[in-house]
Amino acid sequence: MFYQPLTTSYYRGTTFRIYPYFAGVDIRTVPTFGPAVQELLAQGTGLAVQKRSEFIDYDAKQPYTLQYHASVQHEIGGIVGEIAYLGSRGYHLPFYGDPNSVPVRLNAADGHYQVIPNASLRYPSWGRIWYNGMTASVNRRFSDGLLFQGSYTYGHSSDTWSGGQIGNQDFENGFGSATDWWNPQAELGPSSFDVRHSFVFNAVYQLPFGRNRTGTAAAIVGGWQVGVIATLASGVPFTPYIGYDYAKDGSSDQTMQKPDWAAGRNGANAIIGTPDNWFDSTAFVLPPPGEYGTVGRNSLRGPDLKLVDLSIFKNVKVGAQSLQFRLEVFNLLNRANFATPGSNNGPSVLFNADGTRIPGATQITHTVTTSRQVQLGLKVVF
Known about the structure:
- The chain is mainly β.
- The protein has 4 helices and 24 strands.
């Protein structure tokens, strides 16, 4: 059992973001910058002021995590195989958001959560996280100049909230709050860091050349070492959002509302799979007015990751010291490992404030790894 202390960031925001001492305004599509923005701010009450309030639960429970695992190992001829189960549960996790919004109710007729005008506020619950995983590994201990290890993990993490106090700073594929802060259970879905399949293989091989040689021949031919690390992983999930206060719930977190699925569409058939158009935006439509969409959190998957790193070392004995010449190549295959659609500031939003679709909302704009990099080095061992 591991206890998570509530850090200063949990208390900080509530001390200075309180209306009317702090008031935010939402300025979008300003015609010109500079003086035009100052003139707009000078209008004062003419702007739509965000009357944001943040609170601390007076009876906040101590966040904690339970972790447990079981494994079986067996060795055959110097090669060790292992299969393991990993699990964890998190309770009373902090949940960030703007509670100063119009509450909602479930509309049983169409399955949407519907904004209730002039309703009273409710008390919140807290976030939880579940993780279950299985690992299988093969490990060859160093023998005859060779060692290697391969490890596969199948895991599934689900939660109502991923990250710390500001979610989109922890994970760019997730926004920093919930659609309805008072109903975090509606956010239950794959964690923003949920990677279902992961395989890592690493090996080091000391080349046998020159082992029985001496003198100059041994110095030139011998002492070579090759290493490789290969990583394969499935993509992380993400959620397309509407992008503005479509349901008119009055929350200052206006980008959190989710759309509906178009008829016959789902997370499997919405993926197109090219960087310029990763998913089909027409698979998502606006829900009925005044209601939240039924698309689940993190219902789509981003690109997978494939990465191979190579190292070539040459060890040379100089008296009592050793020199190691190092050639390291990162992302050997120069593969573009793409991020999820959206920008560096958060995931994809689909609609303008007038309900029209945003061009390029399904495009991937950056990668999560660098292009091929080659590094030369010299290491002295003494």
